[in-house]
From TrEMBL:
Record field: catalytic activity: 6-phospho-D-gluconate + NADP(+) = D-ribulose 5-phosphate + CO2 + NADPH
Pathway(s) served: Carbohydrate degradation; pentose phosphate pathway; D-ribulose 5-phosphate from D-glucose 6-phosphate (oxidative stage): step 3/3
Organism: Thermoanaerobacter thermohydrosulfuricus WC1
GO molecular function: NADP binding; phosphogluconate dehydrogenase (decarboxylating) activity
EC numbers on record: 1.1.1.44
Active site per UniProt: K181, E188
Binding-site positions, NADP(+): G8, L9, A10, V11, M12, G13, N31, R32, T33, V73, K74, A75, N101
Protein name, UniProt field: 6-phosphogluconate dehydrogenase, decarboxylating
Amino acid sequence: MNEIGLIGLAVMGQNLALNIARKGYSVSVFNRTSEKTQEFMQNKVKDEQIKPYYDIKSFVESLKRPRKIILMVKAGKPVDDVIQEFLPYLDKGDLIIDGGNSYFKDTSRRIKELEEKGILYLGMGVSGGEAGALHGPSLMPGGTQDAYEMVKDVLLKIAAQTEAGPCCTYVGNDSAGHFVKMVHNGIEYAIMQAITEVYDVLRKVLKLSPEEIGEIFEKWNNGELNSFLMEISYKIMKCKDKETGKYLVDLILDEAEQKGTGKWTSQTSLDLGIPTPSLNLAVEARSLSFFKEERVQLAKRVTKIYPEIDIDKEKIIKDLENALLFSVFASFSQGLWVISEASKVFEYNIDLSEVLRIWKGGCIIRAKILDFLRDIIKENKENVNLLNSEKALSFLMDKIDSIKYITNLAKDFYLPMLVLNSSLDYFLSMIEENLPANLIQAQRDFFGAHTYRRIDKEGIFHTEWEAE
Ligand code: NDP
Protein backbone atom coordinates (compact mmCIF):
# COMPACT_ATOMS: atom_id res chain seq x y z
CA MET A 1 0.00 0.00 0.00
CA ASN A 2 1.27 3.45 -0.94
CA GLU A 3 1.24 6.54 1.24
CA ILE A 4 0.20 9.21 -1.26
CA GLY A 5 -1.82 9.20 -4.49
CA LEU A 6 -1.37 11.70 -7.30
CA ILE A 7 -3.68 12.24 -10.26
CA GLY A 8 -2.64 14.28 -13.30
CA LEU A 9 0.71 13.59 -14.91
CA ALA A 10 1.38 16.75 -16.92
CA VAL A 11 4.56 18.69 -16.04
CA MET A 12 3.50 19.74 -12.56
CA GLY A 13 2.09 16.37 -11.50
CA GLN A 14 5.09 14.40 -12.76
CA ASN A 15 7.56 16.59 -10.94
CA LEU A 16 5.55 16.74 -7.74
CA ALA A 17 5.26 12.92 -7.72
CA LEU A 18 9.05 12.63 -8.15
CA ASN A 19 9.65 15.22 -5.43
CA ILE A 20 7.37 13.38 -2.97
CA ALA A 21 8.93 9.99 -3.77
CA ARG A 22 12.46 11.40 -3.38
CA LYS A 23 11.55 12.47 0.14
CA GLY A 24 10.96 8.81 0.97
CA TYR A 25 7.22 8.39 0.42
CA SER A 26 5.61 5.72 -1.73
CA VAL A 27 3.37 7.22 -4.41
CA SER A 28 0.57 5.80 -6.59
CA VAL A 29 0.02 7.74 -9.82
CA PHE A 30 -2.85 7.90 -12.29
CA ASN A 31 -3.52 9.93 -15.44
CA ARG A 32 -6.62 10.02 -17.65
CA THR A 33 -4.53 9.28 -20.75
CA SER A 34 -2.64 6.12 -19.90
CA GLU A 35 0.11 6.68 -22.49
CA LYS A 36 1.31 9.62 -20.42
CA THR A 37 1.58 7.41 -17.37
CA GLN A 38 3.60 4.85 -19.33
CA GLU A 39 5.89 7.54 -20.75
CA PHE A 40 6.41 8.97 -17.28
CA MET A 41 7.27 5.58 -15.81
CA GLN A 42 9.67 4.77 -18.65
CA ASN A 43 11.42 8.11 -19.02
CA LYS A 44 11.36 9.83 -15.65
CA VAL A 45 11.00 7.30 -12.86
CA LYS A 46 14.20 5.55 -11.79
CA ASP A 47 14.57 4.21 -8.24
CA GLU A 48 11.70 6.22 -6.78
CA GLN A 49 8.85 4.32 -5.14
CA ILE A 50 6.25 5.33 -7.70
CA LYS A 51 3.65 2.84 -8.89
CA PRO A 52 1.43 3.45 -11.92
CA TYR A 53 -2.26 2.57 -12.08
CA TYR A 54 -4.37 2.44 -15.19
CA ASP A 55 -7.84 2.36 -13.67
CA ILE A 56 -9.12 4.63 -10.96
CA LYS A 57 -10.49 1.86 -8.70
CA SER A 58 -7.15 0.07 -8.34
CA PHE A 59 -5.44 3.44 -7.92
CA VAL A 60 -7.66 4.29 -4.95
CA GLU A 61 -7.40 0.77 -3.52
CA SER A 62 -3.59 0.97 -3.65
CA LEU A 63 -3.57 3.71 -1.01
CA LYS A 64 -3.19 3.41 2.77
CA ARG A 65 -6.17 4.68 4.77
CA PRO A 66 -7.05 7.40 5.39
CA ARG A 67 -6.20 8.04 1.74
CA LYS A 68 -4.42 11.16 0.66
CA ILE A 69 -4.88 12.06 -3.01
CA ILE A 70 -3.27 15.06 -4.69
CA LEU A 71 -4.91 16.41 -7.86
CA MET A 72 -2.68 18.14 -10.39
CA VAL A 73 -5.16 18.43 -13.24
CA LYS A 74 -6.30 21.34 -15.33
CA ALA A 75 -8.28 23.82 -13.24
CA GLY A 76 -12.05 24.13 -13.70
CA LYS A 77 -14.40 21.35 -14.77
CA PRO A 78 -11.67 18.67 -14.97
CA VAL A 79 -11.27 18.89 -11.17
CA ASP A 80 -14.98 18.17 -10.65
CA ASP A 81 -14.93 15.41 -13.29
CA VAL A 82 -11.98 13.65 -11.68
CA ILE A 83 -13.47 13.93 -8.18
CA GLN A 84 -16.77 12.44 -9.39
CA GLU A 85 -14.86 9.58 -10.96
CA PHE A 86 -13.05 8.40 -7.84
CA LEU A 87 -15.48 9.56 -5.16
CA PRO A 88 -17.44 6.25 -5.14
CA TYR A 89 -14.28 4.43 -4.03
CA LEU A 90 -13.39 6.80 -1.18
CA ASP A 91 -14.21 6.32 2.50
CA LYS A 92 -15.09 8.84 5.17
CA GLY A 93 -11.96 10.54 6.49
CA ASP A 94 -10.06 10.33 3.18
CA LEU A 95 -8.39 13.53 2.00
CA ILE A 96 -8.27 15.23 -1.43
CA ILE A 97 -5.70 17.96 -2.04
CA ASP A 98 -6.24 20.11 -5.11
CA GLY A 99 -2.82 21.45 -6.08
CA GLY A 100 -3.99 23.15 -9.30
CA ASN A 101 -4.79 26.80 -9.88
CA SER A 102 -8.46 26.40 -8.99
CA TYR A 103 -10.72 29.41 -8.63
CA PHE A 104 -11.20 29.96 -4.89
CA LYS A 105 -14.99 29.98 -5.12
CA ASP A 106 -14.88 26.52 -6.75
CA THR A 107 -12.69 25.36 -3.89
CA SER A 108 -15.14 26.67 -1.28
CA ARG A 109 -17.97 24.84 -3.05
CA ARG A 110 -15.98 21.58 -3.26
CA ILE A 111 -14.98 21.76 0.40
CA LYS A 112 -18.65 22.10 1.39
CA GLU A 113 -19.92 19.37 -0.96
CA LEU A 114 -17.27 16.89 0.15
CA GLU A 115 -17.59 17.73 3.84
CA GLU A 116 -21.21 16.53 3.62
CA LYS A 117 -19.85 13.18 2.43
CA GLY A 118 -17.22 13.03 5.19
CA ILE A 119 -14.32 13.66 2.79
CA LEU A 120 -11.67 16.20 3.77
CA TYR A 121 -10.40 18.69 1.20
CA LEU A 122 -7.45 21.06 0.95
CA GLY A 123 -7.19 23.71 -1.76
CA MET A 124 -3.45 24.14 -2.14
CA GLY A 125 -1.71 26.82 -4.17
CA VAL A 126 1.53 25.55 -5.70
CA SER A 127 4.04 28.03 -7.08
CA GLY A 128 7.40 27.56 -8.70
CA GLY A 129 6.60 26.12 -12.11
CA GLU A 130 7.94 22.73 -13.10
CA ALA A 131 11.37 23.25 -11.52
CA GLY A 132 9.74 24.28 -8.25
CA ALA A 133 7.48 21.24 -8.27
CA LEU A 134 10.54 19.00 -8.59
CA HIS A 135 13.06 20.73 -6.34
CA GLY A 136 10.80 22.48 -3.82
CA PRO A 137 7.79 24.69 -4.52
CA SER A 138 6.08 27.24 -2.34
CA LEU A 139 2.95 25.53 -1.02
CA MET A 140 -0.16 27.40 0.10
CA PRO A 141 -2.62 24.88 1.58
CA GLY A 142 -5.99 26.01 2.92
CA GLY A 143 -8.96 24.16 4.37
CA THR A 144 -9.49 22.69 7.82
CA GLN A 145 -6.59 22.40 10.22
CA ASP A 146 -7.42 18.67 10.60
CA ALA A 147 -6.99 18.12 6.89
CA TYR A 148 -3.67 19.97 6.95
CA GLU A 149 -2.38 17.90 9.88
CA MET A 150 -2.88 14.73 7.78
CA VAL A 151 -0.31 15.82 5.19
CA LYS A 152 1.70 18.44 7.05
CA ASP A 153 4.85 16.30 7.30
CA VAL A 154 4.94 15.49 3.58
CA LEU A 155 4.22 19.07 2.55
CA LEU A 156 6.89 20.53 4.81
CA LYS A 157 9.43 18.08 3.35
CA ILE A 158 8.66 18.65 -0.33
CA ALA A 159 8.44 22.46 -0.06
CA ALA A 160 11.38 24.76 -0.81
CA GLN A 161 13.60 25.18 2.23
CA THR A 162 14.88 28.62 3.26
CA GLU A 163 16.60 30.14 6.29
CA ALA A 164 13.11 31.14 7.43
CA GLY A 165 11.93 27.51 7.29
CA PRO A 166 10.04 25.39 4.74
CA CYS A 167 7.94 27.37 2.26
CA CYS A 168 4.70 25.87 3.42
CA THR A 169 2.29 26.81 6.16
CA TYR A 170 -1.34 26.29 6.97
CA VAL A 171 -2.63 29.37 5.18
CA GLY A 172 -6.14 29.47 6.61
CA ASN A 173 -9.71 28.24 6.51
CA ASP A 174 -11.77 27.23 3.54
CA SER A 175 -10.36 28.41 0.19
CA ALA A 176 -7.64 30.59 1.80
CA GLY A 177 -4.86 28.65 0.04
CA HIS A 178 -6.24 29.10 -3.43
CA PHE A 179 -7.13 32.71 -2.67
CA VAL A 180 -3.56 33.49 -1.66
CA LYS A 181 -2.22 31.67 -4.74
CA MET A 182 -4.56 33.69 -6.95
CA VAL A 183 -3.32 36.99 -5.52
CA HIS A 184 0.26 35.69 -5.76
CA ASN A 185 -0.35 35.37 -9.49
CA GLY A 186 -1.91 38.84 -9.66
CA ILE A 187 1.24 40.28 -8.07
CA GLU A 188 3.33 38.15 -10.44
CA TYR A 189 1.54 39.68 -13.47
CA ALA A 190 2.22 43.21 -12.14
CA ILE A 191 5.92 42.65 -11.45
CA MET A 192 6.44 40.96 -14.81
CA GLN A 193 4.77 43.89 -16.58
CA ALA A 194 6.76 46.46 -14.56
CA ILE A 195 9.99 44.74 -15.64
CA THR A 196 8.91 44.88 -19.29
CA GLU A 197 8.15 48.60 -19.01
CA VAL A 198 11.62 49.28 -17.67
CA TYR A 199 13.09 47.07 -20.41
CA ASP A 200 11.22 49.15 -23.00
CA VAL A 201 12.99 52.34 -21.87
CA LEU A 202 16.36 50.60 -21.86
CA ARG A 203 15.91 49.38 -25.42
CA LYS A 204 14.00 52.27 -26.98
CA VAL A 205 15.30 55.35 -25.16
CA LEU A 206 18.83 54.26 -24.27
CA LYS A 207 19.00 52.00 -27.37
CA LEU A 208 20.76 49.24 -25.47
CA SER A 209 21.17 45.72 -26.82
CA PRO A 210 19.63 42.73 -25.00
CA GLU A 211 23.15 41.81 -23.85
CA GLU A 212 23.65 45.27 -22.31
CA ILE A 213 20.19 45.18 -20.73
CA GLY A 214 21.02 41.72 -19.38
CA GLU A 215 24.14 43.20 -17.70
CA ILE A 216 22.02 45.89 -16.03
CA PHE A 217 19.37 43.41 -14.90
CA GLU A 218 22.07 41.13 -13.53
CA LYS A 219 23.54 44.01 -11.54
CA TRP A 220 20.10 44.92 -10.20
CA ASN A 221 19.58 41.30 -9.27
CA ASN A 222 22.58 41.59 -6.98
CA GLY A 223 20.94 44.46 -5.13
CA GLU A 224 17.57 45.40 -3.68
CA LEU A 225 15.72 44.06 -6.72
CA ASN A 226 17.09 40.56 -6.16
CA SER A 227 14.30 38.19 -7.18
CA PHE A 228 13.50 35.17 -9.29
CA LEU A 229 11.79 37.31 -11.96
CA MET A 230 14.83 39.62 -12.21
CA GLU A 231 17.11 36.61 -12.44
CA ILE A 232 15.20 34.97 -15.27
CA SER A 233 14.91 38.32 -17.05
CA TYR A 234 18.68 38.81 -17.18
CA LYS A 235 19.14 35.25 -18.33
CA ILE A 236 16.50 35.76 -21.05
CA MET A 237 18.28 38.92 -22.24
CA LYS A 238 21.53 37.06 -22.74
CA CYS A 239 20.04 34.06 -24.53
CA LYS A 240 20.69 33.71 -28.25
CA ASP A 241 18.64 31.76 -30.76
CA LYS A 242 20.65 28.71 -31.86
CA GLU A 243 19.35 28.84 -35.43
CA THR A 244 19.83 32.53 -36.25
CA GLY A 245 22.40 33.63 -33.66
CA LYS A 246 20.15 36.58 -32.82
CA TYR A 247 18.91 37.45 -29.34
CA LEU A 248 15.90 35.22 -28.81
CA VAL A 249 13.89 37.88 -26.97
CA ASP A 250 13.97 40.02 -30.12
CA LEU A 251 12.39 37.21 -32.12
CA ILE A 252 9.43 36.59 -29.82
CA LEU A 253 6.01 37.91 -30.86
CA ASP A 254 4.78 40.63 -28.47
CA GLU A 255 1.42 39.08 -27.58
CA ALA A 256 1.27 38.10 -23.89
CA GLU A 257 -1.02 35.21 -23.04
CA GLN A 258 -2.85 34.57 -19.79
CA LYS A 259 -4.67 31.75 -18.09
CA GLY A 260 -6.98 33.80 -15.87
CA THR A 261 -5.54 34.00 -12.37
CA GLY A 262 -4.50 37.66 -12.83
CA LYS A 263 -7.96 38.53 -14.11
CA TRP A 264 -9.59 36.72 -11.17
CA THR A 265 -7.44 38.75 -8.75
CA SER A 266 -8.63 41.99 -10.31
CA GLN A 267 -12.25 40.89 -10.44
CA THR A 268 -12.12 39.84 -6.80
CA SER A 269 -10.40 43.05 -5.71
CA LEU A 270 -13.10 45.05 -7.46
CA ASP A 271 -15.74 42.96 -5.70
CA LEU A 272 -14.06 43.51 -2.34
CA GLY A 273 -13.63 47.23 -3.04
CA ILE A 274 -9.86 47.19 -2.49
CA PRO A 275 -7.80 49.28 -4.93
CA THR A 276 -5.29 47.21 -6.93
CA PRO A 277 -4.57 49.41 -9.97
CA SER A 278 -1.10 47.97 -10.67
CA LEU A 279 -2.48 44.42 -10.67
CA ASN A 280 -5.44 45.42 -12.82
CA LEU A 281 -3.38 47.32 -15.35
CA ALA A 282 -1.01 44.37 -15.72
CA VAL A 283 -3.97 42.32 -16.94
CA GLU A 284 -4.99 45.15 -19.28
CA ALA A 285 -1.44 45.35 -20.63
CA ARG A 286 -1.63 41.69 -21.66
CA SER A 287 -5.01 42.30 -23.32
CA LEU A 288 -3.64 45.32 -25.20
CA SER A 289 -0.66 43.32 -26.38
CA PHE A 290 -2.99 40.91 -28.10
CA PHE A 291 -4.19 43.51 -30.63
CA LYS A 292 -1.02 43.20 -32.67
CA GLU A 293 -2.60 43.74 -36.07
CA GLU A 294 -4.44 46.87 -34.93
CA ARG A 295 -1.29 48.19 -33.27
CA VAL A 296 0.75 47.65 -36.42
CA GLN A 297 -1.82 49.50 -38.54
CA LEU A 298 -2.32 52.37 -36.10
CA ALA A 299 1.42 52.83 -35.62
CA LYS A 300 1.68 53.54 -39.35
CA ARG A 301 -1.00 56.21 -39.17
CA VAL A 302 0.56 58.47 -36.57
CA THR A 303 3.72 60.52 -36.55
CA LYS A 304 5.59 60.46 -33.30
CA ILE A 305 7.79 63.48 -32.75
CA TYR A 306 10.57 62.57 -30.37
CA PRO A 307 12.12 65.23 -28.12
CA GLU A 308 15.69 66.28 -28.54
CA ILE A 309 16.93 65.81 -25.02
CA ASP A 310 20.27 65.07 -23.50
CA ILE A 311 20.28 61.50 -22.38
CA ASP A 312 22.00 60.96 -19.08
CA LYS A 313 22.38 57.22 -19.29
CA GLU A 314 23.61 56.62 -15.75
CA LYS A 315 20.84 58.75 -14.24
CA ILE A 316 18.16 56.97 -16.28
CA ILE A 317 19.45 53.53 -15.28
CA LYS A 318 19.46 54.47 -11.59
CA ASP A 319 15.98 56.01 -11.86
CA LEU A 320 14.69 52.91 -13.65
CA GLU A 321 15.95 50.73 -10.81
CA ASN A 322 14.23 52.96 -8.25
CA ALA A 323 11.03 53.16 -10.31
CA LEU A 324 10.92 49.39 -10.56
CA LEU A 325 11.43 49.02 -6.82
CA PHE A 326 8.63 51.52 -6.24
CA SER A 327 6.29 49.59 -8.50
CA VAL A 328 7.22 46.19 -7.06
CA PHE A 329 6.51 47.52 -3.57
CA ALA A 330 3.19 49.05 -4.67
CA SER A 331 2.16 45.76 -6.32
CA PHE A 332 2.92 43.67 -3.24
CA SER A 333 1.25 46.25 -1.04
CA GLN A 334 -1.97 46.17 -3.10
CA GLY A 335 -2.00 42.36 -3.20
CA LEU A 336 -1.49 42.04 0.54
CA TRP A 337 -4.30 44.48 1.20
CA VAL A 338 -6.67 42.31 -0.85
CA ILE A 339 -5.60 39.19 1.02
CA SER A 340 -6.10 40.95 4.30
CA GLU A 341 -9.59 42.14 3.35
CA ALA A 342 -10.54 38.68 2.06
CA SER A 343 -9.29 37.17 5.29
CA LYS A 344 -11.85 39.29 7.16
CA VAL A 345 -14.73 38.94 4.70
CA PHE A 346 -14.34 35.20 4.12
CA GLU A 347 -13.07 34.48 7.66
CA TYR A 348 -9.89 32.87 6.36
CA ASN A 349 -7.81 33.94 9.36
CA ILE A 350 -4.66 34.42 7.30
CA ASP A 351 -1.35 35.44 8.88
CA LEU A 352 0.16 37.84 6.29
CA SER A 353 3.63 37.54 7.76
CA GLU A 354 3.49 33.76 7.26
CA VAL A 355 2.31 34.24 3.68
CA LEU A 356 5.33 36.45 3.00
CA ARG A 357 7.58 33.87 4.64
CA ILE A 358 6.39 31.01 2.42
CA TRP A 359 6.85 33.19 -0.67
CA LYS A 360 10.55 33.51 0.21
CA GLY A 361 11.56 30.35 -1.62
CA GLY A 362 10.37 28.15 -4.44
CA CYS A 363 7.81 30.55 -5.84
CA ILE A 364 7.82 32.83 -8.86
CA ILE A 365 7.55 36.05 -6.83
CA ARG A 366 10.32 35.18 -4.37
CA ALA A 367 12.29 38.34 -3.80
CA LYS A 368 14.57 40.09 -1.37
CA ILE A 369 11.96 42.79 -0.80
CA LEU A 370 9.76 40.22 1.00
CA ASP A 371 11.97 40.59 4.09
CA PHE A 372 11.28 44.31 4.14
CA LEU A 373 7.54 43.73 3.69
CA ARG A 374 7.60 41.20 6.52
CA ASP A 375 9.30 43.69 8.81
CA ILE A 376 6.52 46.19 8.08
CA ILE A 377 3.77 43.65 8.78
CA LYS A 378 5.49 42.47 11.96
CA GLU A 379 5.79 46.06 13.16
CA ASN A 380 2.01 46.26 13.32
CA LYS A 381 -0.24 43.42 12.20
CA GLU A 382 -3.07 45.91 11.80
CA ASN A 383 -1.08 47.67 9.07
CA VAL A 384 -3.05 45.90 6.35
CA ASN A 385 -2.42 48.84 4.09
CA LEU A 386 1.37 48.82 4.22
CA LEU A 387 1.53 52.50 3.38
CA ASN A 388 0.53 53.22 6.98
CA SER A 389 4.05 52.31 8.00
CA GLU A 390 6.73 54.99 8.32
CA LYS A 391 9.24 52.61 6.74
CA ALA A 392 7.04 52.13 3.68
CA LEU A 393 6.42 55.85 3.28
CA SER A 394 10.09 56.74 3.42
CA PHE A 395 10.95 53.85 1.05
CA LEU A 396 8.48 55.18 -1.53
CA MET A 397 9.23 58.87 -0.98
CA ASP A 398 12.93 58.10 -1.54
CA LYS A 399 12.02 56.79 -4.98
CA ILE A 400 9.19 59.07 -5.99
CA ASP A 401 11.34 61.50 -7.99
CA SER A 402 12.74 58.57 -9.96
CA ILE A 403 9.35 57.14 -10.90
CA LYS A 404 8.02 60.62 -11.75
CA TYR A 405 11.01 61.22 -13.99
CA ILE A 406 10.78 57.79 -15.67
CA THR A 407 7.03 57.94 -16.33
CA ASN A 408 7.40 61.44 -17.82
CA LEU A 409 10.35 60.35 -19.93
CA ALA A 410 8.31 57.39 -21.19
CA LYS A 411 5.52 59.74 -22.24
CA ASP A 412 8.00 61.89 -24.17
CA PHE A 413 8.94 58.76 -26.09
CA TYR A 414 5.32 57.57 -26.50
CA LEU A 415 5.97 54.51 -24.36
CA PRO A 416 3.04 53.06 -22.44
CA MET A 417 3.73 52.28 -18.78
CA LEU A 418 0.53 50.86 -17.47
CA VAL A 419 1.94 49.39 -14.29
CA LEU A 420 4.55 52.02 -13.46
CA ASN A 421 2.04 54.83 -14.03
CA SER A 422 -0.64 53.10 -12.00
CA SER A 423 1.79 52.36 -9.16
CA LEU A 424 2.63 56.03 -8.97
CA ASP A 425 -1.03 57.07 -9.26
CA TYR A 426 -1.95 54.58 -6.54
CA PHE A 427 0.54 56.21 -4.21
CA LEU A 428 -0.41 59.76 -5.24
CA SER A 429 -4.06 58.91 -4.57
CA MET A 430 -3.27 57.44 -1.19
CA ILE A 431 -1.24 60.46 -0.07
CA GLU A 432 -3.76 63.02 -1.37
CA GLU A 433 -5.98 64.57 1.24
CA ASN A 434 -8.47 66.03 -1.25
CA LEU A 435 -9.29 63.90 -4.25
CA PRO A 436 -11.67 65.32 -6.86
CA ALA A 437 -14.26 62.73 -5.86
CA ASN A 438 -16.37 65.60 -4.49
CA LEU A 439 -17.22 66.47 -8.10
CA ILE A 440 -18.20 62.85 -8.82
CA GLN A 441 -20.56 62.96 -5.86
CA ALA A 442 -22.07 66.18 -7.19
CA GLN A 443 -22.46 64.69 -10.69
CA ARG A 444 -24.11 61.56 -9.27
CA ASP A 445 -26.47 63.64 -7.23
CA PHE A 446 -27.20 65.88 -10.25
CA PHE A 447 -28.25 63.11 -12.61
CA GLY A 448 -29.43 60.42 -10.22
CA ALA A 449 -30.31 62.05 -6.90
CA HIS A 450 -27.73 59.74 -5.32
CA THR A 451 -27.09 62.20 -2.45
CA TYR A 452 -23.79 63.28 -0.94
CA ARG A 453 -22.16 64.04 2.40
CA ARG A 454 -20.64 67.42 3.26
CA ILE A 455 -17.41 68.40 4.95
CA ASP A 456 -18.99 71.20 6.99
CA LYS A 457 -21.99 69.40 8.51
CA GLU A 458 -23.28 65.92 9.33
CA GLY A 459 -26.03 64.24 7.32
CA ILE A 460 -27.00 63.11 3.83
CA PHE A 461 -27.85 65.80 1.30
CA HIS A 462 -29.53 66.15 -2.06
CA THR A 463 -29.67 69.26 -4.21
CA GLU A 464 -32.04 70.25 -7.01
CA TRP A 465 -29.01 71.37 -9.02
CA GLU A 466 -30.69 73.26 -11.84
CA ALA A 467 -32.94 75.07 -9.46
CA GLU A 468 -29.95 76.43 -7.49
P1 NDP B 1 -2.39 21.28 -17.24
O1 NDP B 1 -3.01 22.43 -16.53
O2 NDP B 1 -2.04 21.44 -18.66
O3 NDP B 1 -3.37 20.01 -17.07
C1 NDP B 1 -3.10 18.81 -17.70
C2 NDP B 1 -3.49 17.64 -16.83
O4 NDP B 1 -4.89 17.68 -16.54
C3 NDP B 1 -3.24 16.32 -17.55
O5 NDP B 1 -2.83 15.38 -16.61
C4 NDP B 1 -4.61 16.01 -18.12
O6 NDP B 1 -4.82 14.65 -18.41
C5 NDP B 1 -5.49 16.45 -16.97
N1 NDP B 1 -6.86 16.67 -17.40
C6 NDP B 1 -7.33 17.67 -18.16
N2 NDP B 1 -8.67 17.55 -18.32
C7 NDP B 1 -9.03 16.44 -17.64
C8 NDP B 1 -10.27 15.80 -17.41
N3 NDP B 1 -11.42 16.30 -17.89
N4 NDP B 1 -10.28 14.66 -16.68
C9 NDP B 1 -9.12 14.16 -16.16
N5 NDP B 1 -7.92 14.74 -16.32
C10 NDP B 1 -7.87 15.87 -17.05
O7 NDP B 1 -1.09 20.74 -16.46
P2 NDP B 1 0.02 21.46 -15.57
O8 NDP B 1 0.89 20.38 -15.08
O9 NDP B 1 0.63 22.62 -16.27
O10 NDP B 1 -0.79 22.06 -14.34
C11 NDP B 1 -1.55 21.27 -13.44
C12 NDP B 1 -2.26 22.22 -12.48
O11 NDP B 1 -1.27 22.97 -11.77
C13 NDP B 1 -3.14 23.26 -13.18
O12 NDP B 1 -4.24 23.57 -12.40
C14 NDP B 1 -2.25 24.45 -13.30
O13 NDP B 1 -2.96 25.67 -13.42
C15 NDP B 1 -1.47 24.36 -12.00
N6 NDP B 1 -0.16 25.00 -12.00
C16 NDP B 1 0.64 24.97 -13.11
C17 NDP B 1 1.89 25.57 -13.10
C18 NDP B 1 2.79 25.51 -14.30
O14 NDP B 1 3.86 26.15 -14.26
N7 NDP B 1 2.46 24.76 -15.33
C19 NDP B 1 2.37 26.28 -11.90
C20 NDP B 1 1.49 26.19 -10.78
C21 NDP B 1 0.26 25.59 -10.84
P3 NDP B 1 -4.53 14.07 -19.90
O15 NDP B 1 -3.07 13.78 -19.95
O16 NDP B 1 -5.38 12.88 -19.97
O17 NDP B 1 -4.95 15.14 -20.87
